[in-house]
Amino acid sequence: MKATDKAWLAAAIDGEGTIYISNRKRKDTGGMNRGVRISVVNTSLEFLQKVSQLMFNTPITVERHKPRPGQTLKTCYRSRLSQSDLIKKVLIAIRPYLIIKGHLADKALEIIPTFSWDHPSKDIVKQKRSEFRRQWWANMSGRKRANHLELMRKGRVIKAERRISNG
Questions:
Q1: What three-state secondary structure class fits 42?
Q2: What CA–CA distances, in Å, run from 3 to 51, 54, 138, 139?
Q3: Report field, pTM of the whole predicted structure over 0.85
Q4: In DSSP terms, which residues pair with 63 in a beta bridge?
Q5: DSSP code of 35?
Q6: What was the pLDDT predicted at 154?
Q7: pLDDT tens, position by position, 22-76
Q8: How many CA atoms lie within 13 Å of 27's alpha carbon, on the beta-carbon side?
Q9: Residue 164: which region, alpha, beta or left (left: phi > 0; alpha: psi -120 to 50)?
Q10: Which of 13, 67, 147, 155 has the most CB atoms in a 10 Å sphere around its CB?
């Protein structure tokens, strides 16, 4: 990546992006969800296509939001990178150019090597998930159960995002 591209991507992430660090306990298995993501959102598709190209051709998604009464909203586009090895490469490349989100990049680069890929066995995960679902179902009222079954019968909820090709 050229120095100008690194500086441009750093400015895009500083101004329109997010470096997201997650560290949450899962309710169903008790395990930890750890992750780092880089996300950039903008209303300009051309802008996001350049971001996507510089971030290893990440997919671009379209986000449509329901406007409030009397308000019109533009279509938003998002490019999100969530593979920790690629995030590390991007952050190392752009770190000297980051101003606003430099401290988040430092923290992300610090914790990425600590990600543990030692997951519990699939049987333990299945058992904990089924226990969680049984408790969830038992705590649900009759009306909520009927609504849930109706949604399942109809094919669930329609996804809010759709992918567009990186042209």
A1: strand
A2: 15, 12, 58, 56
A3: no
A4: 76, 161
A5: E
A6: 64
A7: 877 777 777 777 789 999 999 899 999 999 999 999 999 988 777 778 877 788 8
A8: 4
A9: beta
A10: 13
Reduce the secondary structure of 93-111 to three states and give it as a string. Answer: HHHHHCCCCHHHHHHHHHH
Whether residue 51 contacts residue 6, with contact meaning beta carbons closer than 8 Å, is answered with no
Place of tokens 């990178």: 81
One-letter amino acid identity for 30?
A: G
Q: Are 54 and 4 in contact (CB under 8 A)?
A: no
Which residue reads 């019968």 in tokens? Answer: 153
The span from the CA of 93 to the CA of 71, in Å, is 40
Say how far apart CA 167 and CA 164 lie, in whole Å.
9
Distance of CA 111 to the CA centre of its chain: 17
Sequence-ordered list of residues with C-beta below 8 angstroms from that of 161, at least 6 positions apart, any chain: 61, 62, 63, 78
